[in-house]
Amino acid sequence: MSSDIAIRAASLTKGFESYEQPSDRLKRSVLGLLGTLAPLPPLRRALFKRAQDCVRTFWALKGVDFEIARGETVGIIGRNGSGKSTLLQIVCGTLAPTGGEVETRGRIAALLELGSGFDVEYTGRENIYMNGQLHGLSRDQIDARLEQIIEFADIGHFIDQPVKTYSSGMFVRLAFAVIAHVDADILVIDEALAVGDAFFTQKCMRFLRRFQQTGTVLFVSHDSSAVRSLCSRVIWLDRGVIRETGEARHVCTSYFEAFYRQQQGEATSWASAEDLGESGSDIKAPAGLTRQPAQAQTADQRQRFIENAATPGVTLTALDVDPHSLPTQRDTPLIESVELISEQGSPVSWVVGGERVLLRIRAKRPESGSLPVFAFFVKDRLGQPLFGDDTSLTSTGDNAALREAPAVEAEFVFDMPILPPGDYAFTALALTEAAHVAGTIAVQDCVHDALIVKSESTSVTTGLVGAPMSNIALFVRDEVEQA
To answer: Which of 339, 319, 335, 340 is nearest to 416 (CA)?
Structure first.
C-alpha cells in the first residue's frame, strides 16, 4: 500500500449467519461432519448442500472497494442496515471480514458505540487506563495525560464512580476524551457526536478541526450538515454496496433525493433545503436600542481604512482570523464578561430570528500596548462560523477617556438572523496587531462558548442562516413600468 494511503479496502465482504430454529444449528453441524466423513464425492456434496440450506446468510458488505488518503476526512452515509457500522468495525480490527482485505497505516482511535472498550464495573479513572492501553499507550504515557483527559471529559467527581452509573452523555464524554489524547493517526467516529450538550459538542468540534490538519478521519453520521461541514468526500453505502462516492455536498444531495423518491414515489420531484428559497417568517425587527456604541468613524476615515487594509502595519479585522486555529488556553485574560441583551434589558437565551439584540463585551485594558480590537463569532454546533464583527472601524482617537480607561465595554447592536433550530455559541476575542509580523493579527484573549443561545425558529431558511424579510411582493411587469 502506498505511503500516501491511510486506509484501503479491496473486495471487502462480510456475512452474518442466522438460523430459523435453534435445532438448525445442530443439524448443520451434524450434516457437515457427515459430509466430511462421506467416502463418495457425490454424497459429500449433497450433505454439504443440505448443511448449507440450514443457515441463512445476511451479507452486510458486498465487494466494497475504496481508498482514503492520509489527512483526508471521509464521511460514510446510508440508511440503517446499510453496513456502515460493520465497515467501521472491520477497519478498526474488531470484526473479521468474510472475504477481501483491509489495510491501514498508523494508529487507529475509534469511538464506535457508547461505552466501547469500557468495563462498567470499573470507575472512569480505571477505564481511562484500560482504554488508553487498548489504544497502545503505556502506563507512564497515560499518567502524563491523565489530568488533561479528566479535564476534557469534565464529568466532575463521577470520574471516580463506576461507569455503570454514567448517563449516555457521560459515557461519550469520557470515551472521546481518551481518544483525543492517544496520538492517533486515524480517527474513526460512529454517530458519537449525537450525544452530549452544546458545550461538549463545541469542544469536540474544535478538537476535530485541529486533528484534521494532520490526521485522517472516517466519520459516520445521519446528520448531513455535520457530514458536509467536516468531510471533503463522502461514501454512500446502500445495502452493503457503494452506491456513490464523491464530493460531500453532491453525494448527500443524491442520497436524500433517492430517499425522498422512495418514500414519495418516483414521479415526485425533490428539492433540497438549499433550493427552496422560502421564507415563512412574519417577524418584524423592533426599534433600536437607546444606548449607542462607541463613536463611529466618518465616511472619509472608513474609506481610508478600506484602501489601506492590505498595507503592512495597518490593523486587520477579525475576518482575518481563522476561527478553527484560536487558542484554547487563556494566557492573558482580558475579557471579564459577555452578555446578550434584549431591547427590554433582559438576558437572551433563545431567539426566533429578527430580534434586535445587544452583545456587550466587558474587558480590562492590557498592562502595555494600545486598546485591543474586540470581536465576536457566532458558530453552529459543528463549529462553523456563521457571522461576526469587530470594533476595528470604531474611532477612539477623539475620545481621551476611552484611550485612558482601565476597563472598557464593546457593544454590538444587530438584528438576529433566522437560524435553523439548534444551539449556537458566541466566541469573544481581544485582538492586537502582531508586532513581530506586520499586518497580522495576534489573539490576546479568546473566550470560547462565552454564550450558548438556542434557536427555536420554524421558518425555512436558505443555507446556514436566513435574513428576516420585511416584505416579499410580486408585480405584473407592465404595471411596474407604467408606474
So the answer is: 340
Other CB atoms closer than 10 Å to residue 169's CB: what's the count? 14
The SS3 of residue 366 is coil
C-alpha dihedral over 212, 229, 325, 68, to 10 degrees?
10
Model confidence at 433, pLDDT cuts 50, 70, 90, reads low
Q: Which residue has the cell 477579525?
A: 318
Q: Residue 64: name the closest of 84, 94, 92 by CA.
A: 84
Whether the CB-CB separation of 320 and 301 falls below 8 Å is answered with no
Backbone angles phi, psi at 263, to 5 degrees: -80, -35
User: Which ranges in the chain are annotated with CATH 2.60.40.10?
Assistant: 299-455
The confidence band for 398, taking pLDDT boundaries of 50, 70 and 90, is low
Residues of the chain with CATH 3.40.50.300: 70-273
Topology of the domain comprising 299-455? Immunoglobulin-like (2.60.40)
Element holding 9 (H helix, E strand):
strand 5-18
- State the cell numbers at 396: 477612539
CA 328 to chain centre: 17
The span from the CA of 272 to the CA of 254, in Å, is: 10
- pTM more than 0.90: no
DSSP state for residue 469 in the 8-state scheme? P
Asked if pLDDT for residue 191 goes beyond 90, the answer is no
In this structure, which CATH number among 2.60.40.10, 3.40.50.720, 3.30.750.24, 3.40.50.300 belongs to the domain 70-273?
Answer: 3.40.50.300
Q: Which amino acid is at 87?
A: L
Cβ 76 vs Cβ 235: under 8 Å: yes
Strand partners for 12: 64
Q: Which of 221-225, 233-237, 392-396 has the highest mean pLDDT?
A: 233-237
Closest C-alpha to 342, from 360, 316, 320: 360
Q: How far apart are the first and last CA of the chain?
A: 71
Confirm if 92 and 27 have CB atoms less than 8 A apart: no
SS3 of residue 195 by DSSP: coil
Give the SS3 label for residue 231.
coil
Give CA–CA dist 393/198, Å, rounded: 32
CA distance 425 to 205: 12
**Separation between Cα atoms, residue 350 and residue 353, nearest integer Å:** 9
Is 318 in contact with 375 (CB distance < 8 Å)? Answer: yes
